[in-house]
Amino acid sequence: MRTISEAGNLAGKKVLVRNDFNITIDDSGKILDDYRIRASLPTIKYLLEQKTKIILSSHFARPEGKVVGEMRLSPVQKRLGELLGIEIKMAPDCIGPEVEKLVNQLKNDEILLLENLRFHPEEEANSDDFAKKLSGLAEVYVNDAFGASHRVHASIVSVTRYLPSFAGLLLQKEFEALSKVLENPERPLTVVIGGAKISTKMKLIEEYLKKADHIILGGALANTVLHAQGIAVGKSLIEEEVIPDLKKLKLTDTKLHIPVDVVASADKTGQAEIKIDPVGRTGEGELILDIGPETEKVFDSVIRASKMVIWNGPMGYFEVDKFSHGTEAMAHSISNCPTCFSIIGGGETTCFVEKFGLIDNFSHVSTGGGAMLEFLAGDKLPGIEALN
Ligand code: ADP
Ligand code: MG
């Protein structure tokens, strides 16, 4: 993978950067988690120092090929401008004559942010024609969007056919940190997986049952594992379709740690009665919404004995405070572990640790959710392959 430092003299050149500005905003457009914007700064600052004309591009949310007002990148324009202390120009689209005009007016050290790439269906279709138009704006391409590099999309893959292409500093940093886990992990290596759907994380679980020293499962996905073992989970949502695959795994493996007690309630609001019980006692009318205090202790002791910890996915329905305790405990266990090289990733996971002000306590915070999971499962990421 060629990196931006190998791009030679970039002064005066138009550089198209693919970023991952897929941030979390609330209904009023307020940014809840700007980690991905902050993580993009090193490459942008590097290009500023190199006196280039900087064209930034990103997708945001899922507009599905149409212009959607609430999915414009203006909140990113504003936040990025604040962080850099300079004006960021905003393009009305990501391709077309108006955009070309704005690009041609750019002076060295100026930044133009293109509008949401996914307003065009051609982006997700990896359209060659769209990639050609996009690449026509610039002379050099830099991929700094680790979080989107598992996608075969035009601005990630096809674009590299038309421009000299390099990895940005963020992509390089992610690649180096995560490669360490794949190639040369410190041991004991513990992988903590939580969150919503086990189907999206099965491959990782299978791989790390082989590779890791410990696997910890929490969150809604642990309910499916409990259910597969014949343990009552009440009316918690279960992914029946993965049960056959789960049963092929050695669920009794001593490496595998699953909840021993749980927090359950009749509904998710936090208004109904909340009970803490050993697993197996969940009533038919109850949902498991968090790990219990005994489980927190067990998980904590596994983590404290580790040298490397990877974490993706919350331990419970953390959006309601009463069910966020397990996730908070996990965040503290990992960030307080003196011997651990810690890597975390995932949209909800990073948003959570950011909210609790713990984000600086981890060794590496990946900007990738799906991309991190695929990379760690040993898959080649199309965006990284395209740079080779
Ligand atoms: P990430 O974005 O960090 O990869 P996921 O997208 O896999 O994580 O899952 C996050 C979601 O999982 C959160 O919205 C959280 O509320 C939900 N979740 C975790 N545990 C539970 C649970 N026990 N019951 C319901 N939802 C849960
Ligand atoms: Mg998520």
UniProtKB/TrEMBL annotation:
GO BP terms in the entry: gluconeogenesis; glycolytic process
Secretion signal, residue range per the UniProt entry: none
Binding-site list for ATP: 201, 319, 346-349
Pathway: Carbohydrate degradation; glycolysis; pyruvate from D-glyceraldehyde 3-phosphate: step 2/5
Protein residues bound to (2R)-3-phosphoglycerate: 36, 118, 151
Major place of residence: cytoplasm
Quaternary data: Monomer.
Family to which the UniProt record says this protein belongs: Belongs to the phosphoglycerate kinase family.
Lineage, opening ranks: Bacteria, Candidatus Portnoyibacteriota
MF terms in GO: ADP binding; ATP binding; phosphoglycerate kinase activity
Cellular component GO terms, alphabetical: cytosol
Protein name in UniProt: Phosphoglycerate kinase
The organism of origin for this protein: Candidatus Portnoybacteria bacterium RBG_19FT_COMBO_36_7
E.C. numbers: 2.7.2.3
Cell compartments where the protein resides: Cytoplasm
